[in-house]
Design brief:
The chain is an alpha+beta fold. The chain has three helices and two strands. Strands 1-2 form a two-stranded antiparallel sheet. The chain starts with 6 loop residues before the first strand and ends in a 39-residue tail after the last helix.
Length: 116
Amino acid sequence: MPDGAYHKWLLTGEEIAHVAEMLNIDSSAITIDGNIMNRERAACKSCGKFSGMDDLVNNALARGIHNPEFIIEVLKNGPKNQSPGHEIQCSKCGEMFDGSFSWGPWGEWVGRRVGA
């Protein structure tokens, strides 16, 4: 991967808790420590929240793109393929983040959360 082409978004405690709540699972079921994205996190222009895994999960569930079982599998073992770029909506206020987001190759998602 070219230097600077992708950015690792380390999962925050707040993101993990929000994702676990949306999927109705224990936070310990989320074993990856972050995800690789095509860009740095973006700040929501309405509420200031930074884009994160919780926004990706919220969008996938709300739009019926993925079911909870599929998302849980990705949160445990990483994605099977690179994702196409798509817009994401802030899970806190509903504002659309500017630009397109996609995740990078799984080979870089190898980190595991301590204690997970």
